Amino acid sequence: METPSDENNKIREPFLSSSPSKGGFRTLPFILATEAFERVATIGLSPNMIVYLRREFGMETAKAANVIFFWSAATNFTPIIGAFIADSYMGKYRMIGFGSVLCFLGMILLWSTAIIPQARPYCDQFNTICEAPTTPQLLLLYCSLGLISIGAGGIRSSCMAFGADQLDKRKNPENTKTLQSFFGWYYATITFSALIAVTLIVYAQDNLGWGMGFGIPVMLMFGSAVSFFLASSFYIKLKAKTSLLTGLAQVIVASFRNRHIELPSHATTEVYHIRKGSMLQVPSEKLRFLNKACVIKDPQEDLTSNGDASNPWSLCTVDHVEDLKALMRVMPLCSAGIMMSVNVYQGSFMVIQAGTMDRHVTPNFEIPAGSFSMFMMISIVVWIPFYDRIALPLASKIKGKPVRLGLKQRMGIGLLCSGASMVASAIIEYTRRKIAIEEGLSDEPAAVVHMSALWILPFYILGGLAEAFNGIGQIEFCYSELPKTMSTIAANIYGFGTFISNLVASFITSTVDNVTKRGGESWISSNMNKGHYDYYYCLLAGLSMLNFIYFLACCKAYGPCHGDNKNQAEKSKKGDYESIDDS
């Protein structure tokens, strides 16, 4: 947590200064461009990667899918590791720079597999005969994907929190509003980058070849690194704390070791171990069992001559205890977002569904089935500026006072939109399947029914709104509720939820397939006309409703958000604030 001593350190050390000559809005274009270029580069590789592995490396579909699954899981998980390292050892600035270089090197290695014939197995021009890839060829491929994942983790783990550091002035009454706008525009930027990736980069791969299709991401990653280092002298570079992860682990171990001691009935500064210069003198009463980790049993044995713990695995500071409490308190609310991401991942089934429907927009143009995901990204990109620049100002003008939605309200709206997307998908699939049966296409899964594919847009639009409300709300919630020292972890909790969602979505899909096919045709059969994807979507809608009830229970248990309460208190002094209480 920020303490007076921390502030003094910033003043004494010029390179950590937060003076007007450092930070501010002028640094944001460089930081946002860094992650935007990285997202375009890495996301642009994903859609056609299974095609590349099958055609150029001669992999079976199942093996290629497994490679992509582990690559995707690693890319979602590495930001969590990067967040801990950045907060504890390297700092956010160094982590982003390190990630940019590694990701660039990984892109070069992957590009080399496309432009150097010896770097991949031989396949004839029709891809009917392919040699098995050699161990060095596979090693080069896997190393390239691994470096891309690690590099992307370094960038994504710290970019958003690093940008927030440039703006975060907690004594400024407008601080909450400024950060809220930043988080919204950050999310819009990376979403727009993903939109560019799944359209232009994929087009280049399909029409200009793999060499150009992989070469463009290399150039983009080079631009990402250059963009970031250009503004080095203007950044606020907060110093990393020593071993944050170790400190949290020490609290768990110490509280277990001290589980048999009695907590004092009256908290005093003599009872608890307090870090020098800390503003926290006693631990809070919530999650009280953790307070045993900072209880001084015998000052002569537990403390050194300078007041430090003689064994930090048996005695921790109040600050460390409160850090762990803060993390434990936000996790239940954040875990409700996992189900939202599970619903979003059903887009792969939507691609198959769109392929069996009329995708023509004009008589001579039809939307590729794999490109329908762009509508989800468009809905996010359009909604965020609309909400920030039109909806809120208009509501404030009507009320005559500033109006905004609370953090938990926005997260809840996102969960409802996610559940609604599954209800819409179930209705649309029920109708599509009925038409297919009436047209006698039950045994022709690839046949196109007389129904416009535009009917599946509600899934993508509602899914985009769910991400816009819940995704941004959850990121802002974690950033405002967790201590300043855990800002990078706060920015990556949502990413960790996405990683878990991959596993949960896979588990649900496998379970439904194994259970329902015992009675005949699986709900998620390869033949959509014989399966019952509408039942499957209804199941997800039901799970989403249960998840929303769980979210409401977590909201009640958590209480009011600190960020909302602080902003409301500041505004109420002026008598010009109106907000809906979301406690």
Write the layout of secondary structure elements.
Blueprint: H1 4-12, H2 28-43, H3 49-56, H4 61-90, H5 92-115, H6 135-167, H7 175-208, H8 210-230, H9 244-257, H10 299-302, H11 318-335, H12 337-344, H13 347-355, E1 360-362, E2 365-366, H14 374-399, E3 403-404, H15 407-438, H16 457-481, H17 487-516, H18 533-558, H19 562-574, E4 578-579
Parallel strand pairs: 3-4
Antiparallel strand pairs: 1-2
Helix pairs in contact: 2-6, 2-7, 2-8, 3-4, 4-5, 4-6, 4-17, 5-6, 5-8, 6-7, 6-17, 7-8, 7-14, 7-16, 9-11, 11-18, 12-15, 12-16, 12-17, 14-16, 15-16, 15-18, 16-17
Membrane topology: Multi-pass membrane protein
Organism: Gossypium hirsutum (Upland cotton)
Keywords: Membrane, Transmembrane, Transmembrane helix
Outline:
By secondary structure, the protein is mostly helical. The chain has 19 helices and 4 strands.
What's the CATH superfamily of the largest domain, by name?
A: MFS general substrate transporter like domains
Q: What's the number of structural domains?
A: 3
Class from secondary-structure proportions: mainly alpha
Unreliable residue runs? 1-19, 568-583
Total helices: the number is: 19
- Termini separation comes to 24 Å
CATH class of the largest domain: Mainly Alpha
Helix content: 55-70%
Give a count of the beta strands, DSSP E runs of length 2 or more: 4
Mean model confidence by pLDDT:
81
Query: How are the strands of the biggest sheet laid out side by side?
Result: 1-2
Strand content: under 5%
Shape, principal axes of CA atoms: globular
> How is the main sheet built?
2 strands, antiparallel
- What is the CATH architecture descriptor of the largest domain? Up-down Bundle
* Topology pattern, helix = H, strand = E: HHHHHHHHHHHHHEEHEHHHHHE
The fold-level CATH name of the largest domain is Growth Hormone, Chain: A
Radius of gyration (Å) = 26 Å
